[in-house]
Amino acid sequence: MRFKLRQMEVFRAVMLTGSMNGAAKLLFVSQPAVSRLIAHTEQSLGLQLFDRDKGKLTPTQEAHRLFEEVGPLFEEALRIDEFARDLAARPEGALTLCSSPSLALNFLPPVVAGYLERYPNVRVKFHTTLLADMAHELLGRKAELAVSVLPIDHPNLVVEPFATGEMVCILPEGHPLTAQADVGLAELAACRLVLYSRNIPFGRLVAAAFQRAGVDWNPSVDIVRAELACALVRAGAGVAIVDQFSVGGAGWPGVVVRPLRESIPLALSLVRSRFDTPSRHVQRFVRVLKEHVKAMAPG
């Protein structure tokens, strides 16, 4: 192999920092050692990777193309290194989990906490992802399990609904509509609206509800995430419709939640790849999650 991993590491460092000196500091080696390795790499590959002018480095077109290939490979090498260290430090292994962003605000944190309480030697790798990217995350094995706020229709995914909910109205404290037990879409349409963009699933869901109710609406602010709606409502920018899970639990101080008179139902789903058998970690997490949902149920 002419382009060795150490050469990739040093080349990547030079590309990231823009200089031999910067790469040396990043890698905790001497600047002459970096310069020698880059020169050797160019010679062994038969490529000029950098134009040099009075000490200034300018990557060539070939360097840019090579960097596009090296980046993902090096990130994968780092992931494997981290995995190897995890095996030594955490013999139980890791659970890689993703969820819809709104579920990460209030709904899933206590579930993760409960899981870690029972299985303290497992490392949880948790990130959020949009519905449109969830299939890619699971089929690309970037996550073992996804928790989605809406069902996903994909032939290569196993989707298991496990809880239901509703979209709700959120209002700033002191708003006249907070005096009501519930709020209608027509009443909201008369206010300044902070709503999900119509090109995402939540936006289409809310738009369909307004259309069914025969209510004309015109949002003042388009958003794509529930926390943006909550922050804007708290600041007095308007009123909004979000899923109940994003404002459950402790909720948002300064934000009042009211049910919608016209129901907009939700179905939370567990999602995984059809090509993978659920690991022991996934099975345990699902068990803890379902216990949490059962404990939340009224009565």
Automatic annotation (TrEMBL):
Please report the stretch or stretches of sequence annotated as the HTH lysR-type domain. Answer: 3-60
Does the UniProt entry include the keyword Transcription? yes
An annotated GO BP: positive regulation of gene expression
User: Per its UniProt record, what Pfam families does this chain match?
Assistant: HTH_1 (PF00126), LysR_substrate (PF03466)
Q: CDD domains recorded for this chain?
A: PBP2_LysR_opines_like
Domain of life of the organism in this record?
A: Bacteria
Query: Where is the chain membrane-spanning?
Result: none
Q: Which InterPro entries match?
A: LysR_HTH_N, LysR_subst-bd, NocR_PBP2, WH-like_DNA-bd_sf, WH_DNA-bd_sf
Instruction: Name the keywords, alphabetized.
Output: DNA-binding, Transcription, Transcription regulation
Which is one GO molecular function term here?
Answer: sequence-specific DNA binding
Record has DNA-binding as a keyword: yes
Listed PANTHER family: TRANSCRIPTIONAL ACTIVATOR PROTEIN LYSR
Query: What family is this protein classified in?
Result: Belongs to the LysR transcriptional regulatory family.
> What is the protein name given in its UniProt record?
LysR family transcriptional regulator
Question: Which species is the source of this protein?
Answer: Achromobacter arsenitoxydans SY8
Give the organism's phylogenetic lineage: Bacteria, Pseudomonadati, Pseudomonadota, Betaproteobacteria, Burkholderiales
